[in-house]
Specification:
alpha/beta; FAD/NAD(P)-binding domain; 2 domains; 8-stranded mixed sheet; 20 helices
Length: 606
């Protein structure tokens, strides 16, 4: 497989690195990470409104359950399904959305799809007896698939939608949690699972004059089809944009997918780009019929394990996924070099691979984009792992259309006016403004992700306990918070994976089986021991690889705290280091459950 890894063919790698440094410097501007607090600033609260499901008044609910789950996205759904398999009947799920699906409930912009292969992204395909329609599933299929999981496992009756948790508080007197909501609900739960996701807070940049714009504006996570025409299930034609000038801020994953239908539908499209994305080949197509015909018990788990093995440079006889992730990302995530060589030679070989990967992306721009000025703006000049890579086949041709203006603004948009935007001193008038600015990053503090206080023993709040760094056991439980589980996530002392579905599936199985075992033993409550938590923290910190020099050289992005990697905390790392040891983590959890003595837990019995 190493023969297919692109190598740098240029004769001046130092000049290329100088170009990278210069492009980074152009983007290191004060205030580039400033955003609006959409939960607290009423001026911009409308950006969070649900365009998909009408709000319905209801009476407050008082309910006693075995398990309360905060979040009804992928993590909440999978762990709820596994709890059903453990025989847990009384489950409550609470979510601010109007239905199941998490990010796939909210993100219904035209062109939305996943760029992880659908057979390893959609969870529980074997249990659902389902084969995705395309190699990379479109958003509407993913959302309706999640709805079908909820139906199969009878999760609708226990779900409270358009409901925000205001407080989750432990009561020692009866060893239960009290979950209270903004709709007056009170849920008394023996166990609580926090499954809010990790890219769950819509990000709206704080730009001067935003409230002055007189035309319609919205975020891609709340796409307004009343303004654009079309629908989530349509082919992407947005008939109400005919004759309109549209501006879109951002060129990340959301923009790359919705720019092509925008460009085809409106009279003039202005794309405002701070940093170009590295956009590789996606080559989407109908799912190979052979996958459906050759299914056997464990078929999806085998595909997921194969992908993870390739990403971690573990032995594999075949790359069954064989896409841009395994061809380009894997050799840089886990370099295929001889680590017995001198450090300088190891670095030189890794640099050669990285430069080659990025050369190939820049060459792809030249091959597709005929306008040389646009092509130069579109070329990414940074290391491949500095930003999340993207894969798309229609974006670059769309940018090349004559009705599309690509605006290079590495320092960002200066201000919004009544009629448009000002960038680099130039004014651009638009009729409609779209914010394709994504979500707050994975390192967002836990209390901000949760959006409410979680109060454990001795009135300790989880966010406050983790203020100086995560403290947990296995990344899923934390001392001082009995009977509380967190779905594994990045920066949480669990393990990182390229496809988050994999760790979601493993984490859901572990949490559900642990709750089942605790119930079977008539355990009233469990508490993580201080020694077990300290030992886990020490293990996470010891496994950390210092990535500061690399991150400091990167273009600013969410991966390096918008250019300030000093904000990273060794305690917020991953089992096995930066690439994550998924298989070691899975084996450790399985052995812990198999041992059956709840090692590291202090138990109280009924």
């Amino acid at each position: 497989m190493t023969d297919s890894i692109p190598r740098y063919s240029g004769d001046d790698p130092e000049a290329l690195e100088a170009k990278y440094a210069a492009e980074r410097a152009r983007r290191m501007v004060a205030g580039r990470g400033e955003i609006h607090d959409l939960a607290g600033d009423e001026r911009f609260a409308r950006y969070r409104a649900d365009p998909w499901t009408a709000f319905q008044d209801r009476e407050p609910v008082t309910r006693e359950v075995d398990v309360a789950i905060v979040g009804a996205g992928m993590g909440g759904l999978v762990v709820a399904a596994r709890l059903r398999e453990q025989g847990v009947d009384r489950i409550a799920m609470v979510d601010e959305a109007g239905g199941f699906g998490g990010t796939w409930y909210w993100n219904r912009y035209p062109g939305v799809m996943c760029d992880i292969e659908s057979t390893i992204y959609l969870p529980m395909l074997e249990e659902m007896d389902y084969v995705p329609k395309h190699r990379y599933a479109f958003g509407e299929e993913i959302r309706t698939y999640f709805e079908s999981i909820a139906e199969k496992y009878d999760l609708h009756p226990g779900a409270l939608f358009h409901t925000r948790v205001e407080r989750t508080e432990w009561r020692d007197d009866d060893a239960h949690w009290r979950v209270t909501t903004d709709r007056g609900d009170t849920i008394r739960a023996r166990f609580v699972i926090l499954a809010v996701g990790f890219l769950n807070r819509m990000k709206l940049p704080a730009l001067p004059g935003m409230e002055d714009f007189r035309g319609p504006s919205f975020h891609t996570a709340r796409w307004d089809y009343e303004i654009t025409g079309g629908s989530p299930a349509s082919s992407g034609h947005l008939e109400r944009l005919e004759g309109k000038r549209v501006g879109i801020i951002g060129t990340g994953a959301s923009a790359v997918q919705c720019v092509p239908p925008l460009a085809k539908s409106c009279e003039q499209l202005f794309v405002f780009q701070r940093t170009p994305s590295a956009i590789g080949v996606r080559d989407n197509r109908p799912t190979d019929p052979g996958i459906a015909s050759s299914r056997h018990p464990g078929w999806q788990a085998e595909r997921m394990d194969n992908f993870a093995s390739i990403m971690l440079a573990l032995p594999a006889t075949e790359d069954v996924i064989d896409d841009g992730w395994t061809r380009n990302y894997a050799p840089l995530l886990t370099p295929r070099v001889d680590f017995s060589l001198p450090l300088e030679e190891i670095a030189r070989q890794i640099d050669a691979v990285d430069h080659g990967v990025m050369d190939a992306h820049r060459e792809r721009v030249d091959e597709i984009v005929r306008d040389p000025a646009k092509a130069e703006i579109l070329k990414p000049y940074y290391r491949y792992l500095c930003k999340r890579p993207l894969f798309h086949d229609e974006y670059l041709p769309a940018i090349d259309r004559p009705n599309v203006t690509l605006v290079d603004c590495p320092a960002g948009v200066e201000r919004i006016t009544e009629t448009g935007l000002v960038v680099n001193g130039d004014a651009y008038d638009v009729d409609v403004l779209v914010y394709a600015t994504g979500f707050e990053g994975e390192a967002t503090p836990i209390d901000r992700k949760l959006g409410h206080p979680v109060v454990g023993r001795r009135d300790t709040e989880l966010g406050e306990k983790w203020r100086d760094g995560v403290r947990s056991l296995h990344g899923v439980v934390s001392r001082g918070f009995p009977n509380l589980f967190l779905m594994p996530a990045p920066y949480q002392q669990a393990v990182v994976t390229v496809t988050h579905t994999h760790i979601t599936v493993e984490g859901a199985a572990h949490i559900a089986e642990t709750i089942g075992a605790l119930a079977a033993r008539s355990v009233r409550s469990f508490e993580v021991s201080e020694s077990a938590e300290n030992a886990w923290v020490e293990q996470i910190v010891a496994a950390r690889v210092d990535g500061m020099p690399f991150l400091a050289s990167c273009t600013p992005s969410r991966f390096n705290f918008e250019g300030d990697p000093a904000q990273s905390n060794p305690m917020n790392g991953s089992f096995g280091g930066s690439a994550g040891d998924l298989f070691g983590y899975r084996a450790l959890l399985a052995a812990w459950r198999e041992k059956g003595d709840f090692e590291g837990f202090e138990l109280e019995f009924d």
